[in-house]
Amino acid sequence: MKSGWVLAALMLAGCAASEGAREARTGDPGTSASVRERPPHAVKPLRAGISQQTFTAGRSVENRPIDAHVLGVGADTVMIIATIHGDEAAGTPLTHRLHRHLLANPGLVDGRRVVLIPVANPDGLHRRRRTNVHGIDLNRNFPASNFRTTRRHGKKPLSEPEAQALQRMILRYAPSRIVSIHQPVSCIDWDGPGEKLARAMAETCSLKAKRIGSRPGSLGSWVGLELKKPIITLELPRSADRLTEDQLWRRYGRMMVQAVVFPDLAP
Ligand SMILES: [Zn+2]
């Protein structure tokens, strides 16, 4: 286990302990229980040996579910996260479409596990705004060393339940690569050792691989710089809002499949 994962796992242990205390106080099963106490029958075998698990990975400030779908059982894990910024929502239909494509093409999941989180900021999506309902930019609320305390970033890393849910999922599944879908910059940005993946994705579509720079307390900073795992900040254009799911898939479907099968070439 790499040192980044060890450190992160220790942090999770502390976090889980405090959540347990909250549950005991409030009687609220909260978000962690829904992840840890999943009954075994939630795993549904599909044809060609694919398994699929769907569960609530956490809850927003306003108690909306943050759903997760886990396909396959292989050791190589890719995680796709959409709509951490509620007003950058084109990644959500794209992720749903990828989900259906993987179910219809089980060979793509052979030997790997795909974790899909179609809406990371459900309250923000509900209001079509960037932040969660506390006014915190969730993509500045992660425990990276460049975290900065501000009213917009939070008093401390992981102050927000939505960021906690993503952190738990990442520590639980230890993905070997992550794609987080945003708008509107129109490029494929990366943090950590993500350049090869970014360039492989760029070969399948009109978006260019380009470094934007590590933002304080961002998911990219935490995963790329602290955990030292490849993470892509996929910036779709603003105009992607106007595309149907099928149109999104025609433009960006091969790119999403490339992220899944990397380092193999997308079919
Ligand atoms: Zn964004």
N to C succession of SSEs: HHEEEEHEHHEEHHEH
> Overall mean pLDDT score?
87
Q: Which class best fits the helix and strand makeup? A: alpha/beta
Oligomeric form of this entry?
A: single chain
Give the names of the bound compounds.
zinc ion
Low-pLDDT regions: 9-42
CATH fold naming? Aminopeptidase
Radius of gyration: 17 Å
CATH class: Alpha Beta
Named at the architecture level, the CATH assignment is 3-Layer(aba) Sandwich
Number of helices: 8
Largest sheet descriptor: 8 strands, mixed
What best-fitting shape do the alpha-carbon axes yield? globular
Q: What percent strand?
A: 15-25%
Strands, count: 8
- The number of distinct structural domains comes to 1
